[in-house]
Amino acid sequence: MYKAHNVQRFDLILRALENYVTNPHECKAVCFCAGIEHAQLMAEMFVKTGYKAKSVTSQNSADIDRLAGELARGEINYLCVADILNEGIDIPEIDTVLFLRPTESLTIFLQQLGRGLRLADGKTCLTVLDFVAQANKSYNYERRFRALIGRSSKSIAHEIKSGFKLLPPGCSITMERQAQEYILQNINEAIFNLRRLKQEVSGFERNTGQALLLKNFLENFGLDIRKIFSTPGSWVRLKALAGKPDPSFNADSQYVKLLEGGLSRLYHTN
Question: Which of 15, 51, 106, 218 fits a disulfide with 46 by CB distance 3.0 to 4.6 angstroms?
């Protein structure tokens, strides 16, 4: 007996397939699931609604070559997987990718996306359906979308609002209103702790093509200046912690520490 929320969520998946996939009964799709039970459940629900689907997980990984062949030949249209197929499995015929859970690892996300980016005869495009779920506030949507659009001087929030105008030719991202609102809220409320700040400073010039200036950094992430001075102590200290030190900055200087303490009492002033 399927639980009501599983049936409801599966209905959303079917509607998305009908809206965005030319023929959901003829595509060659890989569905990345949350775990073994989820992959098996998804395959069962596809079959129950008239689709050709199977699941492959760590429990039946020996079947991967056979099932990959069935997907490539169109004998099945949906291969529901868990904890495999990130790398090392090559099915060029995949023309649809379904992300049915958020992945915390950008590397794994790109590996999974890459499963559908191989060229194959008769394959004209790749359709990716990413079903946004409630994620922890520390989940980094910035990095995920930055990896897709490449270098840009615009913030990811700006790209989302403007419809992703900087994507490569032939590529498009369609974001449904509710998903857009959720992701923009997630980005605005993202936890910029010291670890995140150092990470963003370290890759800022490479990711945005902008100079590593305090003004550019604050505007790109929509940050309040108090976040910089209340967490690491100062902008130059943050850069030093991120491996981008200013030659004139001496982190151990008593004068510098005194100055940072004074700045912390002034940054609230407009």
Answer: 51
Q: What proportions of the chain, in percent to the nearest 5, are helix, strand and coil?
A: 45, 5, 45
Look at residues 102, 114, 188 and name the one whose alpha carbon lies nearest to residue 148.
114
Q: Terminal CA-to-CA distance of the chain, rounded, Å?
A: 61
DSSP-based three-state secondary structure for 189: coil
Distance CA 212, CA 204 (A): 7
Angle formed at CA 103 by CA 99 and CA 104, multiple of 5 degrees: 160
Residue 39 class from Cβ within 10 Å (0-12 exposed, 13-18 middle, 19+ buried)?
Answer: buried
**Does the pTM exceed 0.90?**
no
Phi, psi of 24 (to 5 degrees): -60, -20
Residue written as token pair 């003829």: 26
